[in-house]
Every structure is written in C-alpha cells, then in structure tokens.
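Subject: sequence -> structure tokens, single chain

Hey, anyone have a minute? Need the predicted structure for the following. Not urgent.
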Amino acid sequence: MNQDLSIISLLLNASWVVQAVVLILLSVSVLSWAAIFRKIIALRNVHELTKNFEDEFWSGKSLNELAIAAAANSKKSGPMERIFASGMREVQKLRERQILDSGMMMEAARRAMRASYQRELDNLEANLSFLASVGSVSPYVGLFGTVWGIMHSFTGLAAMTQVTLSTVAPGIAEALVATAIGLFAAIPAVIAYNRFSHEIDRMANRLETFMEEFSNILQRSTASMAQHSTRSASGH
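Reply:
Had a minute. Here:
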C-alpha cells in the first residue's frame, strides 16, 4: 500500500493532464533555481566590484587617474565604476571642445550618469520578473492540476457500485501532488524575489548616494577649472 501511494507511483498512474502539469512545474522549478543561482553570483560580484571601486575612489586619487583606470578596466568594471566613467566621459568631451562652463558640464555629466544608472538598474533587475511570475502563477497551475485530477478521479468512481476509502485515496492523493509541486516551485521563487529586490534596492540607494557625492566633487572641480580658465584669459 505504501508503495502504491508513493509520489512516483501516484504520478505514473495519474491522468495525462496532471502529468503534464507536474512536468511543466518541475521544468519551471529547475529554471527558477538556475535563475536564483545566477542572480546570487551576479549580485555577489556586483557588491565586490562596487566595494573595490569605492575604496579606489576615496583613496585620494585624482578624477583623471580614476577615469583612465576605469577606461582600461571597462570589461571588468562594476555598475558604480561605469556610472563614474559615463559622467567623466561627458566632462572630458566638453573639455576637448573648449567648453568650460561649469553648469553645462554638470548638466551633461548628470544626464549621462542618470542614463547609465538606469541601464545598471535594468541589468540588476534581470530575471526578477520571471521569479515573480513563477511565485505567483505556480500555485494556481498546481491547483488546476489538482482540480482536474479530482474531477477525473470522481468520474471514474461514478461507475463503481461500492466506494471505499482505499478506492478514493489514490485518486485524491495523485491530484494533490500537483498542488504540492506547485508550492515547491513557488516558495523558493517568492523568497528569492523578495531577497533580491531588497538587495537591489540597497544597491540602487548606494549608487544614487555615490552620484550625489561624485556630482559635488565634480562641481567643485569644474568650477575651479572655469575660474582658472577665466583668470588665464584675463591675464592675457
């Protein structure tokens, strides 16, 4: 009896609809776990790269030195370093065109950093919508398999003259397996989604704080450069 009511035995004896639902849920579960592990590795790498660049940024190096290092390390840079590089590129472009107006420089740098920030945020949020969908839809897919299995079971029981618990139990049990597997797929996805969302929100706040701090430093630098240029011009 125990062997007959094992999960594998129940699934093998289930209707094709329940088997299809279970197969879909198991496939989705595997894909969600793969997405979870990829996201864990990606966020860990982002945190490490961000910390390394923060240490470099506040180490006392000049903005030009940091910009050169960021350009040389573009393939292995983190989101904060790429945001910094995008702002510095705009400033350097205006310098090359002999446009030294501080306000224009800051406006161009802020626009470039905001665009880069949005791209980085989109990259960080990749696959989150998939986990959200798995977490919200999987229980209902499993419930559909359960309802169908129960309907199929009772349809078969209608032809019997005597119905006992031993005849009802296998059909009900195989139907409930679909709901259990639906929850098995949904729960890790929901937990991972909430965890990753929290980490990404913290990283977004960290990047926004950096953009404000860098903007203040850049504003002082561009203002000083504009004053120096004005003095040089008046001297001539």
